[in-house]
Amino acid sequence: MKDTVLFRRLCWLGLVAAGALALICGPVSAVAADTCTNRGTLDVKYCDENGDLVADTPKDPSQWLNPDTLVFSYTPVEDPSVYENVFSEFMDYLAQKTGKKVRWYGAESYAAQVEAMRSGRLHVAGISTGPTCFGVNLAGYVPFSIMGKEDGTFGYKLQVITHKDTDINALKDMKGRKIAHVTPSSNSGNQAPRALFKAQGVEPDVDYKVNYSGKHDNSIMGVANKDYDAAPVASSVLDRMVQKGVVKMDDLRVIWESKLFPTTSYGYIYNLDPALAEKIVDAFLTFDWKGTGLETEFGKQADRFIPITYENHWSDIRTIQKTNGVVYSDEALKGLKVKKKK
């Protein structure tokens, strides 16, 4: 407990110091930003001169981060303490490969992850599919890996679920019902439904009012408990909750599903020392899942981390968000903080 309190105090002091430094160095940063020849949709503090859609490593070595302690976070899908245990063997391996201490950060929202990385307090993370784009554009997040199989397969589907007792059998039957979406940035929980449902005869916020639940598991439990009539969710989260016995598939009915989407991405903050970043990538791609919490939690869906690129593997996600008019801004980031609504 004392270590946790000390860690939070250090994080707060670091944030204050970072803010003061920004005030001092603001004009210099602005000058540096003006020299960037290509930025795309990235925030003004980042540059993408090689055109791979993620922030370039700073050219000036004095701007590289090489912390004694790496802070790691996994997407806030369920109870953060549960996932700290799931990733414990991997964090030990990451520490071994990098020679750094590794600390867990249990983010309460997608926005908290993005904001922590943007401030330099979060160095390595697993960020959910939709919010990955916010991390890339607003926080200098560089995705390089995803959970997959030996043959290179990976992904999950958007599934729309309802309780078995309802009379909802198709998407058009959701008109006028109480439907849960996850958060504005969630791919399967909001962005994909808004882009894909219209062709199926129903339009969110037109044919039904969207109720944001805050997390996929909240939506799933809400449908199972009949708090919501239906919900679009990630198949991977539903599968894990069924495997754990949290919900019973016999109580639910899948009325529609999409093609495969990429799952949570794994990456690091753009301004890490390149040598350290290389060690982090190596740790992910060489970690043996056998007998670990990762195998227990995700083994039926994946058995290793495999390499990806944001440019290629997130193409469909970017298209969906562009179709929905998503803008990567501080205002849009606030939407990632949505709390569960009763």
* Annotated CATH topology of the largest domain: D-Maltodextrin-Binding Protein, domain 2
- State the low-pLDDT regions, or none: 1-33
Instruction: Give the SSE order as H and E letters.
Output: HEHHEHEHEEEHEHEHEEHHEHHH
Q: Separation of termini?
A: 32 Å
Return the structural class.
alpha/beta
**Average pLDDT rating:** 88
CATH classification, class level of the largest domain: Alpha Beta
Helix content: 25-40%
The CATH architecture designation of the largest domain is: 3-Layer(aba) Sandwich
Spatial strand arrangement across the major sheet: 2-1-3-10-4-11
CATH homologous superfamily title of the largest domain: Periplasmic binding protein-like II
Whole-number total of structural domains: 3
Main sheet makeup: 6 strands, mixed
Which helices and strands appear, and what pairs or packs with what?
Elements: H1 2-34, E1 69-74, H2 80-86, H3 88-98, E2 101-104, H4 110-118, E3 124-127, H5 129-139, E4 141-148, E5 156-163, E6 179-181, H6 187-196, E7 210-212, H7 216-224, E8 230-234, H8 235-243, E9 252-261, E10 265-269, H9 274-286, H10 293-298, E11 304-307, H11 310-313, H12 315-323, H13 330-333
Parallel strand pairs: 1-2, 1-3, 6-7
Antiparallel strand pairs: 3-10, 4-10, 4-11, 5-8, 5-9
